[in-house]
Amino acid sequence: MLEKDIERILVSSDEINEITKRMGKQLSEDYKDKFPLVIGLLKGCVPFMGTLVSNMDIHLEMAFMDVSSYHGGIESSGDIKISMDLNISVKDRHVILTEDIVDTGRTLKVIIELLKYRGAKSIKVATLLDKPAGRVVELVPEYVGTIIPKEFVVGYGLDYEEKYRNLPYVGVLKPEIYNK
Ligand code: PRP
Fold it and tell me: What ligand 1 atom has the least distance to the C-alpha of 100?
């Protein structure tokens, strides 16, 4: 039913499984004995963060912030809103920020600055997708699943008007869907 709106698959379910396995293993090595605080930026992080942490064989803590920048359109607005803040302190914690995508980089830039100000011991970014061609601020994620071209994609957490987040893969939406 959802598949008919997708022009082509960019990152398949199998590729996502491989990515999360590889990244989970790497994070487990890098954060062994560090009890990292894995922070998800809602809502896009949900599927990826879920799969990623289930591939991490170490003790960790999870927390969430609801941050948004797109406000329903197909381009990031640059106006970052925190509609739900963390309910725990990041002071002296090793933070892993998980994202579905890094596009302009604005969201993470703001959040990283905020968490530094709040005293996090280290902050690194784990993202499923990186779209470097979209970058408007300097931001280099430490853990990247795969690099994608400058196209509007949906699925595995990424939405168009809140829809398609539940697709089990990442795909390019047919232009007629957002040109309607
Ligand atoms: C998306 C995505 C990232 C951000 C990336 O979130 O989940 O958080 O945009 O864009 P940027 O690098 O240009 O800042 P969105 O604001 O759409 O909120 P959502 O996670 O609820 O979909």
Answer: 7
103 is catalytic: yes
98 Cβ below 6 A of ligand 1: no
User: What rounded mean pLDDT belongs to the chain?
Assistant: 94
Which residue type sits at 80?
A: I
- Work out whether the CA dihedral 136, 124, 55, 144 comes out positive or negative: positive
Strand order in the sheet with 170-173: 6-11, 170-173, 153-154
Q: Per-residue confidence at 168, pLDDT binned at 50, 70, 90? A: very high
What is the C-alpha to C-alpha distance for residues 20 and 12, in angstroms, rounded to an integer?
12
pLDDT at 64 > cutoff 70: yes
Report the nearest-CA residue for atom 10 of ligand 1: 103
The encoded tokens of residue 117 equal 């100000």
113-137 average pLDDT score: 97
DSSP character at residue 116: H
